[in-house]
């Protein structure tokens, strides 16, 4: 008999299982507007947990349940339709897309913006369409940036995390002709730290290289709903601002903002834009309204006050906290300890997921604590109490 050429997926899954890498979908409760699990009236799985507090969502401003955002999506679903029906370049271009793009361009203080069906699609499509000769990429950049580099077939030079000196060394050592792209996340999703963008721009400018910044975890949270690029006043030094509509903007989709020429180039050549159905119009409308509401300062202020209280409280207890943003990694080191702590915290009604290798380096397993603006001060105190009691119970404090 000739050799089999079929796919043995069962054994691949078993290998994952043995390595502790097998994942599963979480039961279908959804995170309600006030930052607690709420039963999903249309969910097929049994509701789990009595309204646990969720410190695990990327809906940082709690806008996914905001009535203004919901109404905007609902109106457009009725008036325009639920789906774009085709690529934007064919018949899928609608008013809500255009007004969202105008709002994004204004927030990002650039000529134009272009929305994609996800942040993932924005990254892979944009990096590949830029067709760089070399990409210099932070070692902790998001998977969609990594995949964009692969798809572009550019030579990819990985520099040490948030280390402009290492970036500069690698730029200096490179002798490849053609356009160079330096790409970094602004806020890193697992470490909660911020890239030193100004120094990265300095290094790139010495070589005439372009800078692309992924603002997925920053968009909506800084200056008038902008990101770190706006906070640091780097609008005219970052040629490609990218982000997602799916985190603080409480919707779905991704965007790229920059010059007129950049947007024209992408809408002609980014394959994930050209050959993919336009973003669903209600998602565009929701993101636009969320962007408007995000610039209400008291909402972001509530988030930052929760962040400060959690950082102070957890540090005082003796936990090791990393980062400087709304993402608070409580680093415990050992993967088993992280799982035990997450379980013990959850037994106390608080959800904060354990993040383990290979998502993070060996020996840095952590709980990723992410508050929402819609949590109350009492919710934050409950989270702190859960961490104090759980830490003692599992012997980490
Ligand atoms: N970039 C970063 C830094 C992200 O964290 C994510 C989402 N996890 C993405 C891009 C992809 O965005 P989306 O979820 O909209 O595809």
TrEMBL record:
Q: Which Gene3D superfamilies match?
A: Aspartate Aminotransferase, domain 1, Type I PLP-dependent aspartate aminotransferase-like (Major domain)
Q: Which cofactor does it need?
A: pyridoxal 5'-phosphate
GO biological process terms on file: biotin biosynthetic process
Keyword Transferase in the entry? The reply is yes
Which reactions are catalysed by this chain?
Answer: 6-carboxyhexanoyl-[ACP] + L-alanine + H(+) = (8S)-8-amino-7-oxononanoate + holo-[ACP] + CO2
Domain of life where this protein originates:
Archaea
Enzyme superclass (EC): transferase
Question: What binding partners and quaternary form does the record give?
Answer: Homodimer.
The biological pathway it contributes to is: Cofactor biosynthesis; biotin biosynthesis
Keywords for the protein's UniProt record, in alphabetical order = Biotin biosynthesis, Pyridoxal phosphate, Transferase
Q: This protein is called what?
A: 8-amino-7-oxononanoate synthase
The annotated region (Disordered) lies at 1-49
Question: Record's family?
Answer: Belongs to the class-II pyridoxal-phosphate-dependent aminotransferase family. BioF subfamily.
Q: Which organism is it from?
A: Halogranum amylolyticum
Which ranges are annotated Basic and acidic residues under compositional bias? 7-33
Q: GO molecular function terms here?
A: 8-amino-7-oxononanoate synthase activity; pyridoxal phosphate binding
What EC designation does it have?
A: 2.3.1.47
- For whether the record's keyword set contains Cell inner membrane, the answer is no
Aminotransferase class I/classII large domain location is 53-386
